[in-house]
Design a protein that fits this description.
With about 375 residues, the protein is α/β, with parallel strands linked by helices. The chain has two domains: about 5-15 and about 275-380, Aspartate Aminotransferase, domain 1 (Alpha-Beta Complex), CATH 3.90.1150.10; about 20-275, Aspartate Aminotransferase, domain 2. The protein has twelve helices and 13 strands. The strands form three sheets. It has a seven-stranded mixed β-sheet with strand order 2-8-7-6-5-3-4, sandwiched between helices. Strands 9-10-13-12 form a four-stranded antiparallel β-sheet. Strand 5, helix 6 and strand 6 form a beta-alpha-beta unit. Helix 1 (about 20-35) runs antiparallel to helix 9. It is globular and about 75 Å long. The structure holds pyridoxal-5'-phosphate. The site of pyridoxal-5'-phosphate (PLP) has 14 residues, from helix 3.
């Protein structure tokens, strides 16, 4: 996909490979040619889709019954959160580094149900203090904790495993936002030991646009009864046994785009064949080249934690005295004059006019020459 440009925007949209696009195209064409409901049409997607779902489950180290497919992280999160039985006075805990869509959702919880939202200030404090604050705010009214595995604004890897352990001790469920981690590093949900998780296929997984997923742990599935999922008994013969609920049966409803699921499965297959360890190593290598280079640019300040294991492929920068307009202008110049695509990023939600960053997403498909061109471009424009 790159070639002409150095593309550093995978944290928003990752480019799908030809092989992924071909899988989508073939599935759509076969369905259209044979009629989706004919045996030939169904065969074209049923097996491949089943393989896609089990591939995704294997990659995340969960059971297939614990996964549901969605179109993006934001919708998957809405489904999980709105599937819980909120009562006035319940508490929702999140970090201040969550994505703007989580902020929006938390406002809805306040307004619609009278939920108390607790935002843990997370920018300036280390993991130990963040975890201490988390333990401190939990009460018997805490209904859900939400945190990003990798924070969208600054690329910080949050201490999810430790947070989940604190939550488990307190008997509070945890939902992880995996939008920025899955596809750039190995992610093992059993090890992270969370109750719910959500993610996108169209970012680091390099899957088709408009793909996402949600995880509901086996323990949570029986109690998860969202009101938008109809009773399934009218689909069964009167005396047939009721099948055990799955994440899929509790989150998916009606017809969806099979081809996109097949394409997502192909993206997962590619990731697995390369190996997520290999991807992570490459991303770390290129990111340290970038960070070292930025260190020589006077006006640029890296706001992403740089200690080993505290961040991954996202590097966010701030430039002294820059407004959003300045940043947008610089991002445009980087594209027009230096063939480099980066992102102008609000660092807070709602936006704080003096907190604007440049978010650079270094993916495994990038190369040294693109990183060097980015650095030369910044040096020239600043
Ligand atoms: C941490 C995080 N969560 C959620 C989202 C929203 O993702 P989507 O557009 O797939 O809903 C993003 C997008 O950048 C993100 O970084």
């Amino acid at each position: 996909m790159t070639g002409e440009v150095g593309y550093f925007q995978t944290g928003t949209y990752g480019p799908a490979s030809d092989s992924v696009l071909q899988a989508v195209r073939e599935t759509m064409e076969t369905e259209a040619r044979h009629g989706p409901a004919t045996p030939a049409g169904r065969r074209s997607h049923t097996e491949r889709e089943a393989a896609a779902r089990s591939g995704l489950a294997r990659m995340l180290n969960v059971r297939e019954e614990e996964l549901g497919i969605e179109t993006n992280t934001s919708r998957a999160m809405q489904q999980i959160v709105r599937g819980l039985d909120w009562q006035e006075g319940d508490e929702f805990v999140m970090t201040s580094l969550e994505h703007v869509s989580t902020y929006g959702l938390s406002h809805s919880l306040e307004q619609e149900y009278g939920v108390k939202v607790i935002v843990l200030g997370s920018e300036e404090i280390d993991d130990e203090h963040l975890l201490g604050d988390l333990a401190h705010v939990l009460t018997d009214r805490t209904r859900l904790i939400c945190l990003s595995h990798i924070a969208s604004p600054n690329g910080r890897l949050l201490p999810c495993r430790q947070a989940a352990a604190i939550a488990r001790d307190a008997g509070v469920p945890v939902m992880l936002d995996l939008a920025q981690s899955v596809g750039q590093m190995p992610v093992d949900l059993k090890e992270l030991d969370c109750d719910f998780a959500v993610g996108s296929g169209h970012k680091w997984l390099l899957g088709p646009m408009g793909t996402g997923y949600m995880y509901i742990s086996q323990d949570q599935i029986p109690g998860f009864r969202p009101n938008f999922i109809p009773d399934r008994s009218p689909w069964s013969l009167p005396d047939a046994p009721t099948p055990a609920p799955t994440a899929r049966s509790r989150t998916e409803i009606g017809t969806y785009n099979h081809a996109l699921v097949v394409g997502l499965g192909r993206a997962v297959e590619i990731m697995e064949s390369i190996g997520l360890d290999t991807m992570q190593k490459r991303i770390t290598q290129l990111s340290s080249r970038l960070r070292q280079g930025v260190g020589h640019i006077d006006r640029a300040r890296i706001i992403t934690p740089q200690e080993a294991g505290k961040s991954a492929g996202i590097t966010s920068l701030m430039f002294d005295g820059f407004t959003k307009t300045d940043m947008d202008g610089l991002v445009d110049k980087m594209h027009e004059r230096h063939q480099t695509v980066v992102k102008s990023q609000w660092l807070t939600a709602p936006p704080d006019p003096v907190k604007v960053g440049m978010r650079i997403s270094v993916a495994a498909f990038n190369d040294e020459s693109e990183v060097d061109r980015l650095l030369e471009g910044l040096d020239e424009e600043l």
